[in-house]
C-alpha cells in the first residue's frame, strides 16, 4: 500500500512539473505596454520589452549625472559621464574598456559615434566639440564659428551633436533658436543653420502685435521657437530631432532640405532622446521615463516604461536622459538620477511584430501575411497588424480582403483605395445589368406617363386627397414639400391659412432627429464622424432636443421683445419646416456616402454645403416673413438670438458650477460630521 502511495505521489509530482513546463508563462512587469489603435487611442497590449540586465558601473567606475549614451556596432557602450567630466566605454557585462577625455572634458553632455568610428563629444562648459579616435586620442576640436553668418548674439553652448557620412557636424546649442548648427568637420567652415523650429503665434499675440506700440511690444517676452533637445542621423542621412514645448513638434524626421517628412506626433511634453533601429524604426524616450517605438512612417508600435515611485522597480525610471539600440534590437535606457543603465530585450511578441514589419518593408508581402495574422491572433486590438495585413493584401490585388483588414485597422485612406478597386470590379461585372435597369426604368416611366394622361389617375387621386377631411392631418405633414419651391408663400400659408400644425411639425422634428442619427452612425465608413461601432443614443437625444429647445426659445423671446408678429406655434412650425431640404435630400447623401470614396468626397461636401446653405436661407426667410421684419431687421434678430444663446449657456454653466460646489460642500460637511462622531 505504501509503495502504491509513493508511486501516486511521484506521478502527481511529474504531472505537475509537466504542466509547469508546458503552460506558457509571461513574467509580470512593473509597467504596462500600450499601442495605438486606428483612432489614436492607447490600448494595452502584450509586454514588448523586458529588462534582462542593469548596469550601474563599469568595473569600479560609477556614473555621475550621465547625460548621453551610444552603443557601437561591436556592442560597446559609450556613456557621457557628465558629473565626472569623462566618457566611459564598457560592455554590457559591466566591464570597463577605456576612459576617454579625462582631464580634457569639462561637462560632456552629448556624444555621437561617426561612420568612421570617431567619437564626437559636445561639451557645454568648454563650449567646444571634441573629436576623439576610437582609442581615446584627441584628434580635433571646434569652437564657436567666427563667420558673420553665425550671428553676433547667437550662443554656442553645445549640448548634443551628430555627424553624417559627409562629415557635416550637426550641433544643438542651448538657447540658440536659429536652428541646428552645421559645421564641416574637414574644413571647419560654418555651413549654416538647419531646420529651426517654427514659432507658433497665438491669436492673443497676433492681436497684441496689431494694436500695441513698438515700445509696448519690446516689454513683452519675445516669441522665439523652442530649441531642439536631441538629434540623431540614420544610415540614409536623414536627421531626427526631438523638441519640447507645448507648440513644438515633438519629433521631426528631416530631409536634406530641412523639411519634416514624418507625419506623427509625440503626445508627451518632454521627449529627450531619439534613436533609430535596424528596421528604421524610431525610438523616442521621454524625461518622464516612457519609451516610444514608431515605425519609419510614424505609426506607434509600443509605449512602455514610466516613472518610478521610489520602490526601485525594474523597468521604471526616475528620469531618462538618453536611449540607444544595439544590432539585436535591445534598448539601452540611461537614468541620470539612479545612475544606471537598464537594458530591455524584445519579447517574442515584439519580435513577431518586427519580423512581420521587416518582411513587409522588404516587399515580401506574401510571407508577411502569416506573421501579421499571428499577431492579430495574439492580440485582436493590435490595429497596426491589421494595417500591415491590409497593405499586404492590397499589394497582392486582393482588394476585398484588404478592405476588410483596413476596416478593422480604422485606416480610412486604405479602405477608400481598396473600396475603389472593389467597386471598379463590381461595375465591370454588372454594368450591363445597370444598363438594363435604366432602360426598363425609362420604359416604365413612359408607360406610366401615357396611362396617366389617358386615365388621369394622378389628378383624381390628388383631387380626392385635397377634398377629403380625413386626410387633413396628412396634408399638413406633406405640406413641407411646398417649402422647396415656394418658401415665401408657404410661410404665409403656415401663419394665416393653417396649412401646417404643431403636431405635424413635431412629426418632422422626429424625422430630422432620425436623419441626424443616421448621418452620424450609418454614413459610409470613411465619412463617419464617430468611431466605428460607437453608439451613444441617450446622449444624442438629450443634446439634440436640448439645443433645439434652447434655440427656438431664445429666438421667440427675442422676437417677442422686438415686435415680432409670429405666435410661438408659427415660429416653431416655420423653424422645423425650414429643414425641408435636409429632410428630402440628406437621406440620399447618407445612402450615397456608403458607395463613394475619397476621390468623390468633394461631391459629397458640395452637396452638404448646398443643403445647409439652403436651410439657412429658409430660416432667414422664416424669421423675416412670419415676424414681418425687414432684411436689416432680420439680421438684427439673428444676431440678438445668437447673443442670447451665448448668455443663456454661460448662465446655465454658472448655475451648474454652483450646484456642484454646493453638493461638494454638503458632502464634505456630512463626512466631517461622521468622522467626528466616530472618533468621540
UniProtKB/TrEMBL annotation:
Residues 1-27 form the signal peptide. It comes from the Bacteria. One of its GO terms (cellular component) is membrane. PANTHER family: E3 UBIQUITIN-PROTEIN LIGASE NHLRC1-RELATED, PROTEIN LIN-41. The keyword Signal applies. Keywords: Membrane, Repeat, Signal, TPR repeat, Transmembrane, Transmembrane helix. It comes from Gracilibacillus halotolerans. PROSITE patterns: TPR (PS50005). GO terms for molecular function: zinc ion binding. Its main location: membrane. TPR repeats lie at residues 383-416. This is Tetratricopeptide (TPR) repeat protein. It is found in: Membrane. Residues 482-652 form the Yip1 domain. It is a multi-pass membrane protein. The chain crosses the membrane at residues 431-448, 500-518, 541-559, 571-596, 602-623, 635-659.
Amino acid at each position: 500500500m505504501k509503495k502504491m502511495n509513493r508511486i501516486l505521489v511521484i506521478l502527481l509530482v511529474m504531472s505537475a512539473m509537466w504542466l509547469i513546463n508546458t503552460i506558457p508563462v509571461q513574467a509580470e512587469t512593473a509597467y504596462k505596454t500600450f499601442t495605438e489603435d486606428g483612432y489614436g487611442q492607447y490600448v494595452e497590449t502584450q509586454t514588448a520589452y523586458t529588462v534582462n540586465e542593469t548596469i550601474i558601473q563599469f568595473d569600479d567606475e560609477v556614473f555621475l549625472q550621465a547625460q548621453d549614451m551610444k552603443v557601437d556596432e561591436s556592442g560597446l557602450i559609450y556613456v557621457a559621464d557628465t558629473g565626472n567630466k569623462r566618457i566611459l566605454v564598457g560592455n554590457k557585462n559591466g566591464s570597463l574598456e577605456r576612459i576617454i577625455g579625462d582631464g580634457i572634458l569639462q561637462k560632456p553632455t552629448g556624444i555621437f559615434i561617426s561612420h568612421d568610428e570617431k567619437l564626437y563629444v559636445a561639451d557645454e562648459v568648454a563650449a567646444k566639440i571634441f573629436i576623439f579616435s576610437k582609442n581615446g586620442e584627441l584628434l580635433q576640436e571646434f569652437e564657436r564659428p567666427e563667420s558673420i553668418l553665425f550671428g553676433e548674439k547667437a550662443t554656442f553652448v553645445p549640448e548634443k551633436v551628430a555627424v553624417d557620412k559627409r562629415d557635416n557636424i550637426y550641433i544643438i546649442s542651448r538657447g540658440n533658436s536659429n536652428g541646428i548648427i552645421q559645421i564641416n568637420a574637414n574644413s571647419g567652415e560654418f555651413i549654416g543653420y538647419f531646420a529651426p523650429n517654427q514659432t507658433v503665434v497665438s491669436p492673443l499675440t497676433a492681436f497684441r502685435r496689431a494694436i500695441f506700440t513698438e515700445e509696448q511690444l519690446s516689454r513683452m517676452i519675445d516669441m522665439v521657437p523652442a530649441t531642439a533637445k536631441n538629434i540623431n542621423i540614420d544610415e540614409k542621412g536623414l536627421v531626427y530631432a526631438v523638441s519640447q514645448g507645448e507648440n513644438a513638434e515633438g519629433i521631426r524626421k528631416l530631409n536634406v532640405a530641412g523639411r519634416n517628412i514624418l507625419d506623427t506626433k509625440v503626445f508627451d511634453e518632454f521627449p529627450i532622446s531619439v534613436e533609430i533601429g535596424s528596421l528604421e524604426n524610431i525610438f523616442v524616450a521621454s524625461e518622464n521615463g516612457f519609451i516610444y517605438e514608431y515605425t519609419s512612417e510614424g505609426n506607434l508600435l509600443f509605449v512602455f516604461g514610466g516613472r518610478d515611485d521610489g520602490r526601485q522597480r525594474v523597468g521604471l525610471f526616475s528620469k531618462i536622459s538618453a536611449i540607444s539600440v544595439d544590432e539585436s534590437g535591445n534598448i539601452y535606457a540611461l537614468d541620470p538620477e539612479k545612475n544606471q543603465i537598464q537594458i530591455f530585450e524584445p519579447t517574442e511578441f515584439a519580435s513577431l511584430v518586427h519580423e512581420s514589419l521587416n518582411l513587409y518593408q522588404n516587399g515580401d508581402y506574401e510571407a508577411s501575411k502569416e506573421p501579421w495574422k499571428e499577431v492579430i491572433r495574439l492580440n485582436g486590438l493590435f490595429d497596426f497588424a491589421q494595417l500591415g495585413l491590409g497593405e499586404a493584401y492590397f499589394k497582392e490585388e486582393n482588394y476585398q480582403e484588404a478592405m476588410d483588414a483596413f476596416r478593422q485597422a480604422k485606416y480610412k485612406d486604405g479602405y477608400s483605395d481598396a473600396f475603389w478597386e472593389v467597386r471598379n470590379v463590381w461595375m465591370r461585372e454588372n454594368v450591363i445589368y445597370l444598363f438594363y435597369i435604366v432602360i426598363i426604368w425609362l420604359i416604365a416611366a413612359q408607360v406610366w406617363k401615357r396611362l396617366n394622361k389617358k386615365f388621369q389617375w394622378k389628378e383624381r387621386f390628388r383631387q380626392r386627397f385635397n377634398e377629403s377631411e380625413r386626410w387633413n392631418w396628412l396634408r399638413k405633414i406633406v405640406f413641407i414639400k411646398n417649402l422647396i419651391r415656394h418658401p415665401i408663400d408657404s410661410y404665409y400659408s403656415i401663419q394665416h391659412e393653417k396649412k401646417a400644425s404643431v403636431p405635424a411639425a413635431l412629426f418632422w422634428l422626429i424625422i430630422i432627429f432620425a436623419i441626424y442619427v443616421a448621418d452620424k452612425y450609418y454614413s459610409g465608413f470613411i465619412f463617419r464622424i464617430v468611431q466605428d461601432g460607437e453608439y451613444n443614443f441617450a446622449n444624442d437625444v438629450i443634446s439634440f432636443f436640448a439645443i433645439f429647445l434652447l434655440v427656438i426659445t431664445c429666438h421667440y423671446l427675442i422676437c417677442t421683445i422686438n415686435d415680432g408678429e409670429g405666435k410661438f406655434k408659427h415660429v416653431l412650425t416655420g423653424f422645423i419646416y425650414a429643414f425641408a431640404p435636409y429632410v428630402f435630400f440628406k437621406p440620399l447623401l447618407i445612402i450615397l456616402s456608403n458607395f463613394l470614396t475619397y476621390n468623390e468626397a468633394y461631391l459629397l461636401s458640395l452637396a452638404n454645403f448646398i443643403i445647409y446653405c439652403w436651410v439657412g436661407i429658409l430660416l432667414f426667410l422664416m424669421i423675416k416673413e412670419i415676424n414681418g421684419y425687414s432684411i436689416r431687421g432680420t439680421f438684427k434678430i439673428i444676431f440678438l438670438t445668437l447673443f442670447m444663446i451665448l448668455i443663456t449657456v454661460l448662465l446655465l454653466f454658472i448655475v451648474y458650477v454652483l450646484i456642484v460646489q454646493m453638493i461638494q460642500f454638503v458632502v464634505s460637511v456630512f463626512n466631517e460630521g461622521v468622522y467626528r462622531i466616530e472618533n468621540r
